[in-house]
Design a protein that fits this description.
alpha+beta, about 30% helix, 5-stranded mixed β-sheet, globular, 5 strands
């Protein structure tokens, strides 16, 4: 749910072993047609040595991505940096991480699920 196909596909690249590397990999997979009509703000709050805050704003077929905080996110994902990267590399199930509290998803669950369609 949190991590998307492009990050998984590029997971063999050394740069994708950090959250920043995963976000950089997502840029190549954006599906504008799947984002038509969607206006959503996603926030990540990742703890740990490679942690930090990242955001993606989707606006009717376009997106912006950055580091830091975004105002009024629709969805906030909270996890440890290594857990989120492991989810992106299919080394940790996102569903299991959510169920045991290693991944928290705050906000609109439908909008959260849409992220995987926009960045397959």
């Amino acid at each position: 749910v949190v991590c998307v196909g492009a990050a998984r596909a590029a997971a063999t690249e050394p740069s994708n072993t950090t959250p920043q590397g995963v976000f950089d990999g997502m840029r190549q997979s954006f599906q504008a047609e799947k984002a038509k009509g969607l206006h959503a703000r996603y926030q990540w709050e990742l703890s740990g040595p490679n942690g930090g805050q990242w955001w993606i704003e989707v606006n009717d077929g376009t997106y912006k991505m950055g580091k830091g905080k975004i105002a009024d996110p629709n969805v906030t994902f909270i996890a440890k940096d290594k857990d989120w990267v492991a989810i992106c590399h299919d080394q940790l199930s996102g569903t299991w991480a959510y169920l045991v509290g290693r991944l928290k998803v705050r906000g609109d669950q439908g909008v959260a699920r849409k992220l995987g369609e926009i960045f397959p």
